[in-house]
Each structure stands twice: as structure tokens, then as C-alpha cells.
Amino acid sequence: MNDLTVTRQTFDEVMVPVFSPAPFVPDRGLGSRVWDTQGRDYIDFAGGIAVTALGHGHPELLKVLHEQGSKLWHIGNGYTNEPVLRLAKRLVSLTFADRAFFANSGAEANEAALKLARRVAVDRHGEQKAEIISFTQSFHGRTLFTVSVGGQPKYSEGFGPVPGGITHLPYNDIAAARKAIGAQTCAVIVEPIQGEGGVIPADPAFLKALREACDQHDALLIFDEVQTGVGRSGYFYAYQDTGVTPDILTTAKALGNGFPIGAMLTTHELAAHFKLGVHGTTYGGNPLASAIAEKVVELVSDPKVLEGVRSRSETLKGHLAKLNARLGLFTEVRGKGLLIGAELNDRFRGRAKDFVTAAGQHGVIMLMAGPDVLRFVPSLIMPLDDMAEGFARLEKAFGELVGANAQAASR
Description:
Family: Belongs to the class-III pyridoxal-phosphate-dependent aminotransferase family. ArgD subfamily.
Structural class: alpha/beta
CATH class of the largest domain: Alpha Beta
Shape: globular
Largest sheet: 7 strands, mixed
Number of helices: 13
CATH superfamily of the largest domain: Type I PLP-dependent aspartate aminotransferase-like (Major domain)
CATH architecture of the largest domain: 3-Layer(aba) Sandwich
Helix content: 25-40%
Order of helices and strands: HEEEHHHEHEHEHEEEHEEEHHHEEHEEEH
Strand content: 15-25%
Distance between the termini: 52 Å
Binding site for N(2)-acetyl-L-ornithine: 142, 281
Cofactor: pyridoxal 5'-phosphate
InterPro entries: Ac/SucOrn_transaminase_bac, AcOrn/SuccOrn_fam, Aminotrans_3, Aminotrans_3_PPA_site, Class-III_PLP-dep_AT, PyrdxlP-dep_Trfase, PyrdxlP-dep_Trfase_major, PyrdxlP-dep_Trfase_small
Subunit structure: Homodimer.
């Protein structure tokens, strides 16, 4: 194979077709801007799906990457390393947790959390206490276990028998939760803000009711903060603004700013049930990922950065309000921090993908959260000028889409 020239078409020729990438191929990024292989620039409102919380090419992260990369990349779980121990100490000092387990992704972090909950229940109460309660429209990963726990059946259908003992309830429905959580429940897993399900924040009273029901029935409360964690909500972890403390918390996405790493955080007492050899990972907690994540945690946990997230949130919502006033697109704008969802009105229901495509054509990278919601998850330190430029481009993109829609309707 001498010719290694590649284009977007190469994807269709050599890749398993589980994705449908944009027609352009991103090549490099700096801050909140990305350039494709043709040299065209884009404003990045997607952040690699809420991952690049400190933007692209952050100088302090590049420094750590080079320093640790020249020392030790990987050593295996028969040994520990200094970067992973420093990272664990930072995360423990910033949260309710006493112990950390590191993996490579949010799915793996959730897999570990669910396995730990089941193991605790078996050890303490016996095999019959195995039910896991989750919520409709939730998303917890793509392993067979996590996709079964997730509340979107389209992701688990067609793979044969799925793990049993899983119950799905309506999100934010306190009465349903109180009725369902009982002696058979070993854990309740919940996103403090449903991300993939449409950017839907949990009612604080709902989370409080879950905590009370779990305490009453000796069940564990798991917060999936894979998307909401590491500053995304304007707090280092979203639970810290809810008045509710979970027993287990999972985190990934922004933790490595794009370098793959995930973690499960929990207490001394619960961690003790994961005895030697009960769970494991080859790459999890490797020195290179851990060194980068430690610097991310150091930078994002700065109160000034978190305050900046909250102020940028208001600025972004203001841009959306102006856009909506001009074009009449949204029924609701919701979310916290820089996890914002804009729900399309009836005229454009089911057409979120069209808006994402139009944005790309006008130099903006963005996301959807289901067919009806546009999702904004930019860098937590996005320059305000870049944000304004991004919305100027979106006004042109969406204006054309609205105009084309009106023309089609008049025919």
C-alpha cells in the first residue's frame, strides 16, 4: 500500500459504517477554532461532544503531554505510577469520594459503577437484591450492559438477550421513583442533566427523592457525570449544586480534554467490595492519560474558571435569545453552565440534523441531542469574540434554512 492519500470518501471505503461524519475533515485546532484539510476555519460549539473543555492545543496540556510522553506512557496494572496517584488525590480532595478507579471512557466508568453496585448488594444482602433503576431517554454508554441500562431502546435492540434486572422510569417523576425503588433495588443511576436525551436538567426535588428512597431501601445512588462533570455545569461536578451527594460518581469526557480517560469515584466502604482481582483494566490509569487529566483537573477546578463558565452560560443564552427573536426557532432553551439545549419548535420538529449540517456549511461545528434539540457544549474558556462570531455564522446558516423552509411551504 503505497498511496495513503485520504479524503472523506476514504471513510466510506475502509471504516465500519456506525458513524456518518460531516463532509469536511478536521485537521487542526487551536482554542475554539478548528481548520479542515482544505484550510477552512470553523467555530467549535461541540467540543468533541463536551470533551475539549479547555479548547484545542492548550499550551499547558501540550507541555504535560510532551514531558510525560518522554518519560513513561504505559506500565500496566501490576504497578502504580505517580501521575495516577496525584490525579486520584486531586479528585478525592475536590469531591465526596475517598477512592478512585480509572478506566478509558465513560462507558467503562459506568460499567465499573454498575458492577460495584451489584457486588455490594450481593455481599451485603444476597443475590436477590440486583435491580438497577434507570430513566427513560438516559444514556450511559455503548457496552451491552450500559446500553441496556440506558433508557433509549434503539441502542440495545438487535444484539440478542440483554442483561436482566433493569427497570426504566420516567425522568423527574418523583411518584414513580418512590413506588419503584424497593427492597430488590441495588442501585439507581441518574444523570443530573440528561445530555443525549435532550439536555434536560433534573429537578432538585427529584434527586432529593432518589437519595431518600435509596437510603430507605439500602440502594446505592450513582450519578453519571460523564458529560456534566469537570466544570461543564459551572461547578466542578454538577452534584455540588444539587444538595444531593451520590454514593458513586462516574466521570470521563472532559477529564482528559480529548485524551481517553474515565473514572469511577466512591467511598472507602463501598470500594472495599472491589477486592483484589474483582475488576480490572489494562490501560486504565496509565501515566500519560493520568498526567494530562491531572493538569485538566488543576486548571478547571480554579474558581475563576468555574465562574467564567457560569458567566459564559448567560452570554450564550443571550445569543440564543437574539437568534430566536429574529428567526423564531425554539420553544425552550435549557441546561446549566455550558451544557445548553435549544429545543426546536413545531415548524422544525425532527430536523435538528439539518441545522447541524447547515451550521457546518457556514463554518460552525455543533451537535444535536436527539432529533429536536440543538446542543451547545463549547470550551469552558471559549473567547467571547469567538462565541459572537459563531452566532453570526449561525444566523446566516439558520436564516437560509428558515427561508428555504418557507419557500417549500408556500409551494
